[in-house]
Amino acid sequence: MKVGYYPGCSLEVTGSAYNHSTQKVCEALDVELQEIPGWSCCGSSPALKMDGLLSTALAAHNLALGEKANLKDVLIPCPFCYRRLLSSQDEIKADGNLKTKVEGIIEAGLSGDLKVLNLLEFLHRVGLNRIKANVVNPLIGLKVLPYYGCYLLKPAGVTHFDDPENPTSMDKVLESLGAKVLDWDFKAECCGSGLSLSKTEKVVELSGRLIREAVWRGADAIVVVCQLCHANLDMRQKEASKMYGSKYRIPIVYLTQLMGVAYGFSNEALGLNHHLVSPQRVLKKVR
Questions:
Q1: C-alpha to C-alpha distance for 143 and 152, rounded to whole angstroms
Q2: Residue 74: what pLDDT?
Q3: Would you say 74 and 40 are in contact if contact means Cβ atoms under 8 Å apart?
Q4: Judgement on whether residues 94 and 193 belong to the same structural domain of the protein
Q5: Is the pLDDT of residue 197 over 80?
Q6: Residue 261 belongs to a domain with what CATH number?
Q7: Domain span at residue 18?
Q8: pLDDT digit string, tens, across residues 242-273
Q9: Which residues, at least 6 apart from 139, have a Cβ–Cβ distance to it below 8 Å?
């Protein structure tokens, strides 16, 4: 199986563990990732707030590069990059004048045929049976809470994947690995997203609420599919402990990292040695 790959800027740096673990998981699943040649920043939220046309053109530039490489599908692990490329594609399809403007800016034509996939959508395309068949180290005894975040599945009119209020796609992947998936009402709540610098106290409040709930439910770890969610939940626990009057030390791990553990990869290969709240203690349950 071969699929295009767009890592995006943050997975090259702060979210490198997400990038590396995704590649290791694809290796185990015999999926060949073809990185889009010459890909560039999608603009993410900052460009969208500054200039709508610029934001659409930045995302469209990468879509055009994918089409030029004759890719049919492209996997985008970052929810922000995923949403920008997907939204840009939809906007251009719906507005012929915008399409003409954008094609002029990027100096390339767009067919709109490239299928943009988020990580969970891609994994379900691979198939739960195939995911389960590759497990050599079942995650039996590990109690986890899947956290989808607020950006991956909303708005439903754009993403067209899973239930935006009560998603289950990550739950099913985790269950196929042997983990015990706990239920909670915070699956798609906001962690504070990009307000980490401008409104830090609000981020601590929102992230702390998620952490407090996860600890109360007896989870060993919170599982994420977004590098910004990971950063907020991993790095704000000391501040959240002060705000909520309790000491929190719950690991925040990427779904692909847990898949990598189930597939027998080392902690170092999966970036599990770079977390602020170390997951090593809870992973001893399954190692």
A1: 23
A2: 98
A3: no
A4: no
A5: no
A6: 3.40.50.11810
A7: 2-117
A8: 999 999 999 999 999 999 999 999 999 999 99
A9: 174, 177, 178, 179, 258, 261, 262, 286
